[in-house]
């Protein structure tokens, strides 16, 4: 089933804060509800955020009655602003919002706009699944039978509409009959690796071993890792933004000559920008000082301790062996090669 979908004039999504303990679908009938789900990471992962932004703008068209088309457009613009304010780093969120908003603003009839906005959102969701499969196909060529792949955060079907980016590459290699083992990092503070990646891979019968984030050094030093594949929230001219901790993994991989691959769709590229121009989301102190799943109120640090909690970090492109996209695998020099791939078109 899909991570996020449209049903009965509402956006439905798997609540990722509860997994693996509980599998629950949330129904968002208003943009406020969807914005809240995005902020508290009930839906997360750059491509899933792209679909969330797209469905969110479509949802704004259905939220209430409008006396005319101008009133609808004003309402939808405000709702789009709210969606855009939820999370700043993953560029895909803005891509999804803007694409559907453009459809809304170019329409001239309320019913027609509603229909076309929803069709556009559904198209974006379909494109995500298609491009993940393509990324999987291209990326799987980099994996050999018997490889152990280390991955970080969750880049699977839960982080996308379906199939996944970095996990999609692993999935695709396994579908080709290759024996692949995965080492999943826990990914503190919200444990997307231990809670989501391990759950997803085990559901598919893919061999996965969980480690804490501070075990990356020892597994590389012992030669237990053949390749690293991670996803991305934004790829700029000089760096990859991804879940906090990715940079450390990249440096350790470089030290041990382990190839470090990043799998992401073309809509994750923001090639006009450089690393200094991107906002890194800082999240609540509570994520570090409390046990945050179910036992939310158990202190695991002194309540008054000072906390720094950035959600993402910046990995300079010099650490990246290749970028896996739905258009193919891009190798350095990126300055020269990425623009050629971007010219091949958007998300397909
Ligand atoms: C295919 S998902 C790629 C990235 O979005 C993923 O690695 C990541 O960093 C997600 O962060 P999150 O804070 O869980 O949204």
From TrEMBL:
Site feature location: Transition state stabilizer: 153
Catalysed reaction equations from the record: 5-(methylsulfanyl)-alpha-D-ribose 1-phosphate = 5-(methylsulfanyl)-D-ribulose 1-phosphate
Keyword GTP-binding among record annotations: no
Domain of life: Archaea
Alphabetically ordered keywords of this record: Amino-acid biosynthesis, Initiation factor, Isomerase, Methionine biosynthesis, Protein biosynthesis
EC numbers on record: 5.3.1.23
GO MF entry, a single one: translation initiation factor activity
Function of the protein: Catalyzes the interconversion of methylthioribose-1-phosphate (MTR-1-P) into methylthioribulose-1-phosphate (MTRu-1-P).
Family recorded in the similarity comment: Belongs to the EIF-2B alpha/beta/delta subunits family. MtnA subfamily.
Descriptive protein name: Putative methylthioribose-1-phosphate isomerase
Organism, as annotated: Archaeoglobus profundus (strain DSM 5631 / JCM 9629 / NBRC 100127 / Av18)
